[in-house]
Amino acid sequence: MTGPVTVDVPLDDRAYQVRIGPGLLARAGAEIAPFLKRPKTWIITEETVAGLHLAALRAGLAAEGITSEVFVLPPGEGTKSWPHLTASVEWLLEQKVERGDIVVAFGGGVIGDLVGFAAAILRRGVRFVQIPTTLLAQVDSSVGGKTGINTSHGKNLVGAFHQPTLVLADTDVLGTLSARDFLAGYGEVAKYGLLGDAGFFAWLEENGPALAAGDDALRVEAVRRAVQMKADIVVRDETEQGDRALLNLGHTFGHALEAATGYSDRLLHGEGVAIGCALAFDLSARLGLCAQEDPSRVRAHLAAMGMRLDLADIPGPLPDAEGLLALMGQDKKVVDGRLRFILARGIGAAFVTADVPGDAVRAVLAEAIRTPAKA
Ligand code: GLY
Q1: Average pLDDT rounded to a whole number, residues 271-295
Q2: Is residue 336 predicted with pLDDT exceeding 50?
């Protein structure tokens, strides 16, 4: 295997690189050293990641003479909250982290979002490096500078755009994910093909099962292509005034399903996105925007990957179509009371619209509720 591959995120004075490949934890010192004003870093991580990978990261930093202080938070979505934000910021202040220093976010999307936000507000902004440890974080949340926390009013409602200085996506760490967590992250990978690159989706149809089974080179290539697509979109629309909303394909349905299942283990975020993508194609087909075969093709790929693809695959009771529609109304993509949807004119051809009749959404949900689980 050759060295890491690089995706550039050319955002003027906020430009950075995403480095992708195996062995990046061991190389972390060499990768980060050019950005340090003094040979010291502050790592914020969570217990599970710390147990599995912290020693490797610290050794990689120490190999270049970089010392590291560590703050370990509890795992789980509950960490993306005011109390843990406060604790992180207070710890960084106690540690006397200066404006010129670099904080390291080492974990999945929860840690990346929380630590990125802590860095955004500490001394009015210090730099941070993302070292994402889940597939979902490597292909989505670590890139693009969205940071923040959840509040009692909903998810991601408080935050800031704060771009990282560097992203190190070590594909070796994906080997320690459970199959379920890996496949949930894969929901976001498939999303990229579905929203903007039919060729990538066809590549995933051919290579997805082998990359899920552990093929390293295929994993690097899937992460690289997804991150390149994200970088292209973020450069066009950093603060989501337009095109960046395409990245929310499957999320309007997915967020409603996550809310309906109480953000619990019944449905992981990436699983909701995958089912949501299938429903977005159902809705697009119902509105005559894409071929009738497209939703089946989406589901055939999810099925080939061993993923959840229908509402019936979610254990436990769900609200009826009206109840799910009401939960969609809570989505933060509501503008002037109208839901914004990401629909598609075909595989790889998504677009943003606020022009979706509620009856069509209701009909898609009602049919999805009637569809029995696959054996
Ligand atoms: N995760 C969607 C975005 O970064 O815009």
Answers
A1: 97
A2: yes
pLDDT digits (tens, 9 = 90+) for 218-269: 999 999 999 999 999 999 999 999 999 999 999 999 999 999 998 889 999 9
In this structure, the number of other CB atoms found within 10 A of the CB of residue 177 comes to: 18
Cα(332) to centroid(ligand 1), Å: 13
Q: Do 216 and 321 belong together in one domain? A: yes
19 lines ligand 1 (CB under 6 A): no
Closest to 100 measured CA to CA, from 133, 77, 123? 123
Question: Is residue 140 within 6 Å of ligand 1 at its C-beta?
Answer: yes
Q: Are residues 184 and 312 in the same domain?
A: yes
Q: Could you tell me the residue range of the domain that residue 162 belongs to?
A: 5-176
Identify whether the C-beta of residue 115 lies closer than 8 Å to the C-beta of residue 88.
Answer: yes
Indicate which CATH number applies to the domain containing 295: 1.20.1090.10
Confidence of residue 334 (pLDDT cuts 50, 70, 90): low
Its pTM surpasses 0.90: yes
**Does the beta carbon of 144 lie inside 6 Å of ligand 1?**
yes
> pLDDT tens digit string along 170-203?
999 999 999 999 999 999 999 999 999 999 999 9
80 shares its domain with 46: yes
CB of 191 sitting under 6 A from ligand 1: no
Backbone angles phi, psi at 165, to 5 degrees: -90, -25
Residues with a catalytic annotation lie at 124, 146, 188, 230, 240, 244, 248, 251, 255, 269
In total, the chain counts a number of residues equal to 375
DSSP for 294-330?
HHHHHHHHHHHTT---SGGGS-S----HHHHHHHHTT
